[in-house]
Design brief:
- This protein has about 270 residues and is α+β, with helices and mostly antiparallel strands.
- The protein has eight helices and nine strands.
- It has a five-stranded antiparallel beta sheet.
- Strand 4 and strand 5 form a beta hairpin.
- The chain is elongated.
- The two termini are about 45 Å apart.
């Protein structure tokens, strides 16, 4: 737990134990499709396996009809006979061929998962053959990317913007998997006056985001947060703030004009 004081305020920042996946809230630019035997990752989908997903994406690109299915079957048979036989078969040959076709209509990036003392995800390999591997893809159609950024044609610059946005969503999801989620409670005169939760990202980035939610008189408090190891210290701080408020109110009442005191008594 972190705490900062700026009388009459006390700001508490701590991990958010009620984590909600960023894939379940808000509108996401891309779609994350993952396959894992133990974890439910990314966005909800009804694909049986990665072959089912890639086949549908392929058909959505070439035509989801009888002619498209014939083209799909012909492609699989041809690649299988050329790349999957012989002394050096390529187990990814069919997938890579489909992805090249799919890239005509979609921007697709791979998703890799690291499962070691926690989970982590990114769009590039972790280079750990034992505890990591590809679990799916994140993608967006070029049509939706053009709607997002404007333009009539997918240029290199627009593609980079789309890829950067996809990476940003994966980075946010990675922070969620790592448990990097925080919230704050703001106390005034020892009483809770505001709170907000669900800030996902590094502690530094979360604190910067929290600063925008604090009232003007609390600006800068996030820059002076310090670790509090004992909950009793927080309680003592709140009690001290409350006592100061009571003492100030008592002094104000004591020095109030006699006529005002009589009016309040009535």
């Amino acid at each position: 737990m972190l705490m900062a004081e700026q009388e009459p305020y006390a700001l508490m920042v701590q991990p958010d134990d009620m984590l909600i996946s960023p894939r379940e809230v808000g509108d996401n630019f891309g779609t994350m499709v993952c396959f894992h035997p133990r974890y439910a990752l990314g966005d909800h989908h009804n694909y049986v396996d990665k072959d089912d997903f890639l086949r549908e994406m392929y058909l959505n690109t070439v035509g989801n009809n009888e002619r498209g299915m014939e083209r799909y079957e012909r492609m699989v048979n041809m690649v299988w006979s050329r790349k999957m036989t012989g002394d050096h078969p390529d187990p990814r040959a069919v997938d890579d061929t489909m992805l090249r076709v799919i890239s005509e209509k979609y921007i697709v990036m791979p998703l890799y998962l690291l499962d070691h003392s926690g989970l982590a995800m990114q769009t590039t390999s972790f280079h750990d053959p034992w505890d990591s591997g590809q679990v799916g893809w994140v993608y967006v159609s070029k049509e939706d990317a053009l709607k997002e950024f404007g333009g009539e044609k997918m240029t290199g610059a627009l593609r980079k913007k789309a890829e950067d946005l996809l990476r940003g969503e994966v980075a946010e999801y990675d922070a969620y998997l790592r448990g990097e989620c925080y919230g704050f409670e703001l106390y005034k005169n020892g009483e809770l006056s505001d709170s907000c939760w669900g800030f996902i990202g590094s502690l530094e980035d979360a604190c910067k985001a929290m600063a925008d939610y604090l009232p003007d008189e609390c600006k800068g408090m996030t820059e002076h947060l310090a670790e509090v190891k004992e909950p009793a210290s927080m309680i003592k701080t709140l009690l001290r703030h409350a006592r100061i408020q009571i003492e100030q109110a008592a002094k104000a009442h004591e020095h109030a004009p006699r006529q005002q005191v009589l009016s309040e008594a009535r």
